Every structure is written in C-alpha cells, then in structure tokens.
C-alpha cells in the first residue's frame, strides 16, 4: 500500500535538492565576479532560471513511478499534502516549500484555477507577516570626527579574491557621497550604517545592500562595486529610494544572492522599498515561481475585495498580436495571444510563446519588462467588460475556455502596467516629452549593446515607468543584433526608382536599414531631430556593424544600472 507520508517525503527531499542546487549556482557569482567571467555569469543565470522546472520534472517522474495507478488519486494527494505540511512546520521559507508542492500537484492534475482540496491555498495572508527572524547583517557606528574609518572597516568586512584597488580612497569617496546626499539631515547626517551580510551580484557588479541612519531617520544605502584592471573599487552609492527601486526593478535580470533565508531578506528589503510589491522582491531575488504565487495572491485578494470592478481593455493602441486587459485598481496587465495576426505580422502564436520564453532568459538590462506566464487563470465571466469578453471570444478562442459561469485562460502573460509611450508623449509638457524621447533612444541603444534588437520600434510598444524610465514590452519581433544585416539605403539612379512605391531592390529577411528608422517611429519632426542629435548612431548602418564586430569578439559593452551622476569621483 502506498504511504502518503513517504510520498510527502519524496516531495520534501526534491525541494531541498532544488534549494541546494539553487544556492550552489548563486555562490558561483563571487568567483565569476573575481575572475571577471561575465560569459560564465550569464550562463549561470540561464542555468538557474531552468532549474526549477528541471527539479519539478525530476520529482514528477519519481512520483509517477512510485504512485503508478494512484498518481491521480485525489484522496491520496490530500493526505500527502497534509503530511507534507507537517514535515515543513517550523522550516525556514515554508512558503517556498508550499509553492513547490503546488506546482507538483498542478502538473499531475493539470489544474484549472485553484484546487483547495490538494493545494496550499491562502489568498488572505501576507506571507512575510509571520517572518520575524532578523536577517544577518553588519552594523557600523560612524564617528563625526573620523567618518572614513567606519567605511574602511565596512569594506574590510567584504573581501573578495581580488584586492581593492585602494580601499582607503573608496571609503573616503563613500563617506563624501553620503555626506553630500544626506546633507539635508543636518551637519553630521550619518550616524551608522548596516548592510546585509549577503553580497548581491548581477551582470558585472557586486552590491552591498543596506541602510544608512541619521539621528531620527534612515535611508536605503547600496554600494556598487566593480572589478577593473587595477582591482575592486566602489563605483557608486545609491541612497534615493527611486534609484534603489530601479536597481530592484521588474525590467532587470535577477540577482545572484546566496541568502540563508529568502523571506527574511524580502522583509528587510521592504523597509528600504515599502512600495515595492512582495511578489516583485521574490522575483528579483531569483524566486520567480514564488513571485508568481505572491502576485496571484495579491491580485485575487484585491479582485475579491472589489466585486464591482471590471476587467477592461488596457489603454493604448490595440495590438495585432496580443489582446491586453487590466483591472483598473491593480498595476498589472494581462496579455493573451490572438489566434491570427493581421498583415504585416508573419509570426505564429507558437513563435510568440518562444519569444517570451527567450526574453525570460535574456539579460534585460533595465529595458525589457518581466513577463510572467500564467496557465489556466480562472475569472468569473461577469467580471469582464462585455466588449472585452467579446474580443477574447472572437480573436483569442484558442486560449479561452468557458466553464460554466467562468472564463479560463489557457495561457496569458502578466506584466507590470506602464504608461504607453505614445500616450505619455501626448499628455506631457515639452521638456518631459523630450526627456522621454531621449530615453527611448537610450533604451534601444542599451538593448542593442546587449545583442537585442527590438524589431518593432513603434512608440506604442514602449512604456514609461513611474520613475520616467522607458521600457520595451512587446516581444514578438525581437531579434539578435548579431544575426541581422545592417545595410545602407541604396540611392536611386533612375526616375522610376525614385517614384517607386515599393523598394526597387532586393530586401532579404535579415536586412535592416537604420537610415529609415525615423519613418517608423512616429515622432514629430522636432523630437525626431532631438533623438538623432542625441543618438546619431541609431540611424547609421556603420554604428550597428561596428557593434556587431564587438559582440562577435566577446566585447559586450557595459550597461550600468544607474546614471553617471551617481558614480563616485
């Protein structure tokens, strides 16, 4: 007879194995940073992204072999869940364990919506409320007479395989920057500083994350370290919540941080970023599946608390590839792939899915919005705006299942809601419009320097965050810069060529003509002129060809996650 307790132990052991393998990959970040092995760091990031599903599939196969004909016995699975709950009682990060079990159960039963009989379901709780353990950290008192000494001690506690280029100078630069940034606190603003024991790594930087305290207040404090030719040095200090929020933003890749307890770190980070949703913090720490769980929990808690609020089409120009809708009181959009695409789109729904999976694995450099795939989301049909429901039924029938009074979406992507750039430009004053357009150009540059070509540069495919940062969020035409052919626009030599409605020369599927970008951006002439002045290379085929040569040689340009103004002297 199959013992529910034994099956629960197999699931518990599988999560422990996943957790250990996740930590092992995260620990490599220290060595990658010390050796400046950026290609290895990118490979580690991709490996860790795939790890969750890999471990789930390994466990599912073991359980299928053990359960045999009982694999879909709901009564047995209910007992397994109860034994599993007992086995993790008192464990650290129990929410992670529960999410892992839910994923297993959903894979076996192909659950649509929630199944409270065999899953852990708690839409009414905030999982971090019960976490009270203080996360490990270092604290330093700062003397008013010799403040640099505290920062020398601080950096001395964070040693790497490579020495600091000049530890005392780095400490002095940090002290000066904090004094300048926090001068409005008083004459001697900095009284102490505390940093998490765990170092955060991403891309080419290591981060010391914590808080700086004055007499009656505190502020976030993040010290960015880089490893250059002469050794490690402090490159920047971030004390404004907006800058730290962008560092931990949903348009960036996930940190490599070997945290002994994830939930405790999330609680600490919320003291720095009180407006950052719990789901986004879990996600940016690499716990993407837990981030999805918390996003689902938060959304449906609000959804059930506001029964009169309807799901409506998202503001902006309707897309040819996705039907997009939102709940006005929530900062999210839901994107469902259409069954067929109008000309000139030549892609397929399957190819669109592949593109979103590709973006999930890319280094997003703060310019690609994270998109979480949700399967079999269930909504009451009555909560849809009638026109939206009609659109979903007519154009997304392959993704929509009607089950009694409910609508089930087989697959949809959930993203943070941003203001579409085309709408933003209509609403803002002249200076804000100019800043947004220049950052739009910088977004394309940042993506290109990381081997990402957005394909469709229409303004409606970009959004503006609450920190006024321009981010790309429409992925069906994303390509690798390396695979494209950047050509000069041929000059017409005859009258017939000059007046031809279509190109009179051959255009291959990989051909791109940067000189013509301006015609497809939809910008007024003054803003287009400002963009060309600030980012002339975007419109020059040779700039793109030179960039391709760099990428082929492995010389990926650096893309700092903060402006030059935050760099230390």
Task: Outline the structure in words.
The protein has 569 residues and is of the alpha+beta class. The chain has 18 helices and 17 strands. The strands form 4 sheets. Strands 1, 2, 3, 4, 5 and 6 form a 6-stranded antiparallel β-sheet that branches. Strands 7, 8, 9, 10, 11 and 12 form a 6-stranded antiparallel β-sheet that branches. A hairpin with an 8-residue loop joins strand 7 and strand 8. The radius of gyration is 26 Å and the shape is globular. The termini are far apart. 34% of the residues are buried. The model has no long low-confidence stretch (mean pLDDT 92).
Range of helix content: 40-55%
Largest sheet: 6 strands, antiparallel
Structural class, by secondary structure, is alpha+beta
- The average pLDDT is 92
Question: How far do the termini sit from each other?
Answer: 70 Å
Number of E-type strands: 17
- Unreliable spans are none
Number of helices: 18
* SS strand fraction: 15-25%
Gyration radius, rounded: 26 Å
Per the principal axes of the C-alpha atoms, what is the gross shape?
globular
